[in-house]
């Protein structure tokens, strides 16, 4: 097992990562100040529960924790105010108080939702991330928790850091192949924003990653978590640097919403990252950036074009709700080289629209 730290002063926390570490969960909980008999509410989803809820529950009960469980429907639709309401009811009926702890056992949907329940229940209780997807190497770190509004993704949320991230990689074995690919988009993103050598490594090891080779996966997820931890450690609340983690997300979030979440998060972000590379080339950056980005994402078997049925004007309208846009002015994260990005203001809306159209023609 390896351990990283998200360095945030009194809100610092460990990320434990490794294969076969699940049995260590109670011990690691106790180490971060959540000793038994702290009451726990384990929130998970309907696709994760059949594999992992019972073992996790047995482990925790065996260590003396009183455990309540709640299983939400799997899928993005669960990141909603209705589900928040439902989980608050569960928490109240279980008698959770301000000393209780929520355990988010699942992917980014469970993590974002359960984290937001933790951020808002009784004005904030502690929570722990137990990620079960590749994508969640990103979502479980950094404390962005949220639900969606029908007009915009992640628009109702908070910054609420977990007490610990416990990443037992043996749980990734049951991931459907499409979810494996989707998660690899955020792995690629961490390379593209921060580490050119890691981008090269991902390209050379794409086959191993897609086949869930344990060693390759552990290296990639450790590296991805470490990039995220470094960025969040320098800018917890996205006053500057942290915005780089949004590479591909301005176009990507709009595509996700307009596709009614038919496109998975990583798929939409993959297309968005190709769009950002195209925009960078329009600003005079080296076309090699675009070619490398696209080649890497293709190697990871991710989509690199906008599905032809997506309506460009709806994408443009939805994009205007982006949290980075201020006073109607566009703000984009664009690559300036492989492994390095810049924040660019006032990207002409016409260029963005043309790029989305180009990406559609390439479908
Ligand atoms: N907070 C953040 O910083 C952040 C970062 C990136 C993404 N996100 C959010 O994360 C969400 C996407 O996360 P995701 O891709 O993990 O999606 P997800 O949570 O929906 O999980 C993907 C699918 O895999 C299933 N699943 C999860 N773990 C499994 C396992 N081990 N075995 C079998 N099936 C499993 C889930 O039930 C679901 O059907 C989006 O809502 C996105 O906005 C948040
Ligand atoms: O942690 C961050 O900061 C990120 O931007 C990570 C993204 O991968 C993630 O999708 C995040 O939820 C996007 O945040 P948002 O503030 O643009 O909704
Ligand atoms: Zn993301």
From TrEMBL:
Major localisation: cytoplasm
Binding positions (Zn(2+)): 186, 249, 265
NCBIfam families assigned to the protein according to its UniProt record, in alphabetical order: aroB (TIGR01357)
Keyword Cell membrane applies: no
Residue ranges constituting the 3-dehydroquinate synthase C-terminal domain according to the UniProt record: 183-324
Catalytic function, reaction form: 7-phospho-2-dehydro-3-deoxy-D-arabino-heptonate = 3-dehydroquinate + phosphate
Name by which UniProt lists this protein: 3-dehydroquinate synthase
Natural source organism: Paenibacillus thermoaerophilus
Gene that this polypeptide is encoded by: aroB
Classification via SUPFAM superfamilies: Dehydroquinate synthase-like
Positions with a binding annotation for NAD(+): 74-79, 108-112, 132-133, 144, 153
